[in-house]
Amino acid sequence: MQNWVVADRIAIRFLNLVFSYTFFFPEASLAEIEKIYEIAVNGSDDEKISAAAILCGASLVRGWNIQEHTVFFITKLLSPPVPADYSGTDSHLIGYAPFLNVLLVGISSVDCVQIYSLHGLVPQLAGALMPICEVFGSCAPKVSCTLTTGEEISSHQVFSNAFNLLLRLWRFNHPPLEHVMGGDIPPVGSQLTPEYLLLVRNSQLAILGTQPKHQACIASALSGLVHGTPVHQVVDAVLNMMFRKMGRGGQPLTPTASGSSNSSGSGPEDASLRLKLPAWDILEAIPFVLDAALTACAHGRLSPRELATGLKDLSDFLPASLATIASYFSAEVTRGIWKPAFMNGTDWPSPAANLSMVEQQIKKVLAATGVDVPSLAAEKMYGTLLVEVGSSPATLPLPLAALVSLTITYKLDRATERLLTVVGPALNSLAAGCPWPCMPIIASLWAQKVKRWADYLIFSASRTVFHHKSDAVVQLLKSCFTSTLGLNSSPVSSNGGVGALLGHGFGSHYSGGMSPVAPGILYLRVHRDVRDVMFMTEVVLSLLMQSVRDIASCGLPKERLEKLKKTKYGMRYGQVSLAAAMTRVKLAASLGASIVWISGGLTLVQSLIKETLPSWFISVHGSEHEGTESEEMAAMLGGYALAYFAVLCGTFAWGVDLMSPASKRRPKVLGAHLEFLANALDGKISLGCIWGTWRAYVPALVTLMVGCTPAWIPEVDVEVLKRVSKGLRQWNEEELAIALLGLGGIHAMGAAAEVIVERG
């Protein structure tokens, strides 16, 4: 009793400190956290649970100066040691079920997961969760632990909380940027899937000497279900549990290997008894359950409302099944074999109440980009005639309709938030990949349910415009350049700069709904969905050179330039200074390099330097302002822009020294590009670009390498350096030629000395 009183006093004192004095007494707060941690390790069962709740409260969310210690303590508590006096045959973790469940629920919010990600502890947390999933997913829920509050905790509940949290962590476990973009190791993003988790689990069992049952618990390949097998019996039991309220127990829903339907006709009581099974066994059967239910709905044996209710009962019974449901429906949408579901408000929920509002808001969001938004009205094709059918209901693929119907059955509270954060991203990703206007339809349905989410849903729907129109991506990139350089009259980007590129977020900042979103924010949200990434180098290069021409002509169209030439003072008030133009050129080049880097990383940068740039110099390009006074300046600025563009791209990809993991790939690509320069300077290659652009590019590129990336130069073959140096000397760039050879290493010193002697 005395220990409990002490723990209670410490808890109260600590909470007061967190809310009142966290920012003023970090040492005292850390001391209190350590005391709470000691209670969580050595206290009684009730004291441990109380201490765990405190650690997962304000000290984790608000105590920024002690967060790193708190997340570390919580992670350690998720892996409690085996008690010295423990002699049971089952895992010792089972006895910690109430304690572990408090921790799992406490760190399952979106904010807490983000905190773990920011502190780089996602892998450690995942490592602590996997044993919990294995232990509680492998034991039958025969015995439930009862808390002092009267709440019962089953193994299914602990497993589901750990499993869903683990799957959510997969989204946040990103490797260092230089590893993903650097190309030294395969990007792990493609491995961070539930299927990968399954492989890890089975490999761990194999290492421990346990024969792994390959539980295809996420999205099984439905090769066939044999009648009378244990899996078939579990499928029958789950189906009866899902649809017992509708009196469907005697109707055939279970698929067999032949594709026909069969059912053992077991009653609800048998189903309840048979579902006292380990969670892994139930998850193994769920893909077959979903296949049977979806097939029955498609053939009219199960109404859409009954399907949604049954899915809700399944997810309530085993919340971990939500991951399987989302994964299975996503796979079925990809297969494309299901008939569409008419969202008419009778069979399926209807988005008609605010679909037109969503369309108008999407147009407002994209107003600053100049991208056309496809109509949301239903359309049908008759021969070559496209006919709009305004009265036709919206449609979704049947699996997607089932998934969204399931999600909108949830009441919004703290408990269901954990579940929606599992299925929500999957629903969003699936809808974004479906034909237009699936995502706006889902946004309309959810906006009816939760009005405060309308801004986010509309913004998500706006992003899908770029998934279905490649020319929309090009237009978006063009808007990025014009807004950054201040070359348009949009109220969002009239002053240019980074502020115009990224804006100030999104939302209903003005009366009348959503405000236009800056193009940079939009591109950051859609660039991962660009299907043909390799064409981005050509697009960005073209937009960069167009921007240079606009800068050279003050951003004025050709008609206004001709008018200015005829005025008394000519171009005096229209022509910008060279210094001001160079500032904007550097800004354009840095934007172009940033877009290339975030779009495709190392692979795209190397393709740009090794292939795209040489091809561009060889090709013939017409000047938009040919014959005007700005042509010469545009050509010169274009060379400078390309030089800055190339060096910045290389710096992003390789770094400026030998420390970057990707720097070992630099000599080959850089050497090939400088060899192209040498061949062109020797006259072995005919160039199609404007001479002024080439004349400005080569010295500018070498100057940047000498001044900013001198570590690159010794990696290039000495003979290539000599040839480039010779070409520079022919252009009277002797000092630059000597500087290039001087950084070329020992083998280039002789050539540098010869140049100096000849010059003297």
Automatic annotation (TrEMBL):
Region Disordered, annotated ranges? 250-270
Q: Name one GO biological process term.
A: regulation of phenylpropanoid metabolic process
One GO term describing the cellular component: mediator complex
Q: Which domain of life is it from?
A: Eukaryota
Keywords assigned: Membrane, Transmembrane, Transmembrane helix
Which parts pass through the membrane? Answer: 587-609, 633-656
Output compositional bias ranges, type Low complexity: 258-267
Entry protein name: Mediator of RNA polymerase II transcription subunit 33B
Protein species of origin: Vitis vinifera
Q: Which gene encodes it?
A: MED33B_0
